[in-house]
Design goal:
This protein folds into 2 domains: 94 residues, Urease, subunit C, domain 1, CATH 2.30.40; 289 residues, Alpha-Beta Barrel (TIM Barrel). It is 38% helix and 23% strand. It has 15 helices and 17 strands. The strands form 3 sheets. Strands 1, 2, 3, 4, 5, 14, 15, 16 and 17 form a 9-stranded mixed β-sheet that branches. Helix 2 packs across helix 3. The chain is globular. The site of zinc ion has 6 residues, from loops.
């Protein structure tokens, strides 16, 4: 057997590598070997492969990266809708979490989230939820890729009676996943208003020592910023800068409030912003000025947030919303074009999670995390620019195949590592139990 033999050669109608930016290749193919992208070039020059997969009418792109969410909250989907953030959290979500969230809840909820995300073309997600070791086990079993953020709050949480316990669990998780090829662990201090300075200082020290990322909800609403300024005279982002939290491994989720000083700080520290437009719209939290951040050179990724505030984990739909909203907020139809939107949902997500050397674009040497979108449907015709068609005219039902590290986790729309009917049944059973107790 010649050494160059590929495991798999994928031959789509269009291939969008995302890097270089704005390129659409036709008559090209991509080769996978040992879980990596081993070859990419004109199809007539392709080396031989054990398996050749012809995908007429399909666009091959990097797998989508959902840079912020709370996976197990899928089991609270639709439980408390149409409420402002603090009422939603204090009166509904936090009491429900205190009552229902245990390891079994997190296992089922995370599985449900993984299944939904794979079916929607997502190959990597970031999660911030209780019992993070359970989420790690589910990611491990499913074959998906993830950043699991260990949650830190000042008060007791499911699985950790004190912030100190949560921190030591986070350190243990980092240690036990140090060599994992698909899982990375980050610290997830919840928000400036739920984590005090001493605990944030501990997070900073440990994250620095262990060289891991920190993801945090920051400036989600104007109210959050106003309250902090009224109480201390300091904006939350400025406080995080003073505490030494900001840096290239800092992921600021939401950022609907961005002053000129905030912008300067994000640029100076090279921190990433994770934009969650549909959650911000649904909770009337505000609008992240994506175009302004982008023009200033800030890395902006995109996330769905949890299914309880969205209410789906549809990153393709989220990207469409982001592209449309960016234009409205910037007052410019040229803001956030389709190609840039796809970049935000792939390579920028990978950059935010510190995984850009490994994923986020279709380049030789990167992991074979790939999604095939079928653009042959009636509502997608004719196809002038396949990326425009993907972002503006396609829903996630067009996702046909998904590979993570070269392994097919979705084949012809069917999950290969998760039992969909069994998952639907157990999610429904959780829902019935929760609804009956309300
Ligand atoms: Zn969130």
């Amino acid at each position: 057997m010649p050494e160059t033999l590929l495991d798999l050669l994928i031959v789509p109608t269009w291939l969008v590598p995302v890097e270089p930016a704005g390129v659409v290749l036709s008559e090209h193919a991509l080769g996978v070997r040992d879980g990596l992208i081993a070859w990419l070039g004109p199809r007539h020059q392709a080396p031989s492969a054990h398996q050749v997969q012809e995908l007429p009418g399909c666009l091959l792109a990097p797998g989508l990266v959902n840079a912020h969410g709370h996976a197990a909250m899928t089991l609270f989907r639709g439980m408390a809708d149409d409420l402002p953030l603090m009422t939603w959290l204090e009166k509904h979500i936090w009491p429900a979490e205190a009552r229902w969230v245990d390891q079994a809840f997190v296992a089922t909820g995370t599985q449900l989230a993984i299944a939904e995300q794979l079916k929607g073309g997502i190959t990597c997600f970031s999660d911030m939820y209780f019992h993070p070791q359970v989420a790690c086990e589910q990611v491990e079993r499913s074959g998906m890729r993830a950043q699991i953020c260990a949650p830190i709050l000042d008060f007791p949480i499911p699985g950790a009676a004190t912030p100190e316990e949560a921190l030591s669990q986070a350190v243990a998780l980092v240690d036990s996943h140090r060599q994992h090829s698909r899982l990375s662990i980050a610290f997830g201090p919840h928000a400036p208003y739920t984590v005090s300075d001493p605990h944030l200082e501990q997070v900073r020290m440990l994250a620095e020592q262990l060289q891991v990322a920190v993801q945090m909800h920051v400036h989600e609403t104007a109210f959050e910023v106003e309250q902090a300024v009224a109480a201390t005279g300091e904006r939350p982002l400025a406080r995080l800068a003073r505490l030494g939290l900001l840096g290239p491994r800092f992921q600021a989720v939401h950022m609907t409030q961005v002053s000129d000083d905030d912008l300067q700080q994000l640029v100076a520290y090279n921190a990433s912003v994770v934009h969650c437009p549909e959650s911000n719209l649904k909770l009337a939290s505000g609008f992240c000025p994506v175009e302004r951040l982008w023009q200033a050179g800030v890395n902006v990724a995109i996330g769905t947030d949890g299914a309880a505030s969205n209410n789906d984990l549809d990153l393709l739909g989220e990207t469409r919303t982001a592209a449309l909203l960016a234009k409205a907020v910037a007052g410019s139809a040229t803001a956030m074009g389709a190609h840039r939107a796809l970049r935000m949902a792939t390579l920028n997500g990978a950059r935010a999670l510190g995984s850009a050397p490994c994923i986020g674009s279709l380049e030789v040497g990167k992991a074979a995390d790939i999604t095939a979108f079928d653009l042959s449907g009636l509502a997608q015709q004719p196809v002038y620019d396949p990326v425009s068609q993907l972002i503006y005219a396609s829903g996630r039902d067009c996702v046909r195949h998904v590979w993570v590290a070269g392994k097919a986790l979705l084949r012809d729309g069917q999950l290969t590592t998760l039992d969909e009917p069994a998952l639907v049944a157990s999610a429904r059973a959780f829902g019935e139990r929760i609804a009956a107790a309300r």
